[in-house]
Amino acid sequence: MFSAPPHAPLKATVRARVAGLAPADPVTRRLAVQTLINTLGNGLFMTVSAVFFTRSVGLSAVQVGLGLTIAGACGVAAGIPLGQLADRIGAKRLLIVLYLAQAVGLGCYALVGSFPAFLVVACVVTALDSGGRSVKNAMLATALPAQSRVRSRAYLRAVTNVGIGAGSALAAVALSIDTRSGYLTLIAVDAATFLATTLLLRGIPAGTPVPRSPGAPGGRRLGALRDPAFLAVTALNGVLAIQFSLIDVTVPLWVVGHTHAPAAVVSGIMITNTALVVLFQVRATRNIADPGPAARVARRAGLLLAAACAVFGLAHGVGPIPAVLILLAATVLQAVAEMLSSAAGWALSYELADPAAPGAYQGLYNTGFAAASMLAPALTTNTAIRFGLGGWLALGVLFAAAGAALVPVTRWALATRPSTTEEEEQA
């Protein structure tokens, strides 16, 4: 009598676990493939862009920084009008147009030979990118079932980290070769990913906004701009979004200039953050489907961010090994806070929005995130880097206050939603 090899059940278990990582919803699976392809290209371009502009185009670092700052402002301005346009002509249709335009815009970088030309192309590409995120979020609001939107967003964010990480790793080849043709090849690949994603979008249901409820805050014309409670939620989430600049900008500067930790630990911090988000972002969405619980999770995230800031600040003045351990501990705290605040933000942005105007609301919400991305480097470097531990603690207080404020502000927003007020009247 023969028996199955002892490792067979283990293999079956591993296969089951791997299969379980894929989302059950076919729309989410298709969006995950689309996201992976697109973010792979983004990772390629993001990694080599600064070197390309300085070494190949011939711009100075100051010109690149100024141009990207101005382009960031264009990105902030693009979210709301493009979100409102998505409500008029359809989010999926507009997203396809924006992706095609981004492919053309990226290709135009190959023609840039001066600062004015760089500024024009960067502003157009950044506006299309920021507006595209708003329109994609509006499409998700109607294409995905309400009960699975937050979980689907978590899958897509995990896939985003995988795509950008893989793209960054592949870009190292072009950086090592350091030729104009190599950089242009990566730019062409990034542009091609936008063309590929338009084909994948054809299989995504277009969805339609629900009819507008009488008495909904604002109106289709101005949407979320006439909803003060949602404006407040957006602003507070924007404050929490400042945390993304910590890992990308502030912590590397802190490690290199203010601690005795080796510079290589910066890579370890990046890898740790990415790995934690990929592995646990979906799990972090449990029980965060409704605004009330989501706001309380955001409050917890604010406290964790405050703790992470304090721990980052403690890395100053200690030996190399303690500094590395302190920095990695702070990175874990920040990553947990990042996952919780992201999940809470998705729930709040979808569940508090007027379902008749998803584009307008997601456009405003993404504008808050874009504004935080533009302002965060200056804010964090002029606190933590300039004042050391005191600056880190000030950032921590800011994060804790924003997270705590989301609880009463969310109650206010719920009290002004038409469904809430109608239910109270019927009761």
Automatic annotation (TrEMBL):
Claim: Transmembrane helix is one of the keywords in the record: yes
Identification of the protein by name: MFS transporter
Membrane topology of this protein: Multi-pass membrane protein
Organism: Actinocatenispora thailandica
One term of GO molecular function: transmembrane transporter activity
Main location: membrane
Residues spanning the membrane: 36-54, 60-82, 94-112, 155-177, 183-204, 229-255, 261-280, 301-318, 385-407
Single GO cellular component term: plasma membrane
InterPro entries the UniProt entry points to: MFS (IPR011701), MFS_trans_sf (IPR036259), MFS_Transporters (IPR050171)
Transmembrane among keywords: yes
Keywords attached to this entry: Cell membrane, Membrane, Transmembrane, Transmembrane helix, Transport
UniProt-annotated location(s): Cell membrane
